[in-house]
Amino acid sequence: QVQLVESGGGLVKPGGSLRLSCAASGFTFSDFYMNWIRQAPGKGLEWVAYISNTGSTIFYPDSVRGRFTISRDNAKNSLFLQMDSLRVEDTAVYYCARRTGSNRAFDYWGQGTLVTVSS
Amino acid sequence: ENVLTQSPGTLSLSPGERATLSCRASQSVSSSYLAWYQQKPGQAPRLLIYGTSNRAPGIPDRFNGSGSGTDFTLTISGLEPEDFAVYYCQQYGSSSFTFGPGTKVDIK
């Protein structure tokens, strides 16, 4: 069955960096576009980054562009999010999510990893 | 950015009742690119509906989606105890994804 398992969250000071990982299994990882989506405590969902199946196409919203970098290693079935210049407002649970083929929805989600940015 | 607005913010209903949730977009959304999710406390969101009206695998037929353009609706006919949760709509357009703020369906 499809599994997505995030890791790498933790406590970091403002201005610091953190690298999240997502291990995928149960499907052909290299066939699917992948995303990071976050949820601040008690708040709604915010899309953070998108990467095509080959890694050739990447998109970010304005809120993280220039600070966050999404990447993937198809040989290792892994997705990454490098987060630099972290801000207090980046505090959230970060989910990796698989995008459906033609409908641009997110059909499988990991359990999430908590990132806390605080001094 | 295509901003999604959901109403009502909270819907208080009893088991067995019908729930009607609204999602309104600031710009037109392709019907192929509108989805709905359910989220329970401490859990990741679960895809319910994609392409406006297509149920994801394993989703009961009491969940139905409809709409077009800027107005979309999720209807839950006959609420079951496990349906009390927060529901989000989501759209894709112009290389960007946005979510609505959510509608909480709680027990009256």
Q: Helix coverage percent of residues of chain A?
A: under 10%
Q: Tell me the series of helices and strands of chain A, N- to C-terminal.
A: EEEEEEEEEEE
Amount of beta strand of chain B? over 45%
Which two chains touch over the largest interface? A-B, 20 and 24 residues
Number of strands of chain A: 11
- Give the SSE order of chain B as H and E letters: EEEEEEEEEEE
* Unreliable stretches of chain B: none
Task: Tell me the overall shape of chain A.
Answer: globular
The helix count of chain B comes to: 0
Overall mean pLDDT of chain B: 96
Tell how many strands the DSSP assignment of chain B holds: 11
The span between the termini of chain B is 35 Å
Shape of chain B: globular
Oligomer status: heterodimer
Q: Tell me the structural class of chain B.
A: mainly beta
Strand content of chain A: over 45%
Secondary-structure class of chain A:
mainly beta
How would you sum up this structure, described in words?
The complex is a heterodimer of chains A (119) and B (108). Chain A has no helices and eleven strands. Chain A has strands spanning 3-7, 10-12, 18-25, 34-39, 45-51, 58-59, 68-73, 78-83, 92-99, 106-109, 113-117. In chain A, strands 2, 4, 5, 6, 9, 10 and 11 form a seven-stranded mixed sheet that branches. Chain A starts with a strand and ends with a strand. Chain B has 108 residues and is mainly β. Chain B has strands at 4-7, 10-13, 19-25, 34-39, 46-50, 54-55, 63-68, 71-76, 86-93, 96-99, 103-107. In chain B, the strands form two sheets. In chain B, strands 2, 4, 5, 6, 9, 10 and 11 form a seven-stranded mixed sheet that branches. A four-stranded antiparallel sheet of chain B has the order 1-3-8-7, with no helix packed on it. In chain B, β7 (63-68) and β8 (71-76) form a beta hairpin. The mean pLDDT of chain B is 96. The A-B interface holds A 35, 44-47, 50, 59, 61, 95, 100, 102-107, 109-112 and B 1, 32-33, 35, 37, 44-47, 50-51, 54, 56, 88, 90, 92, 95-102.
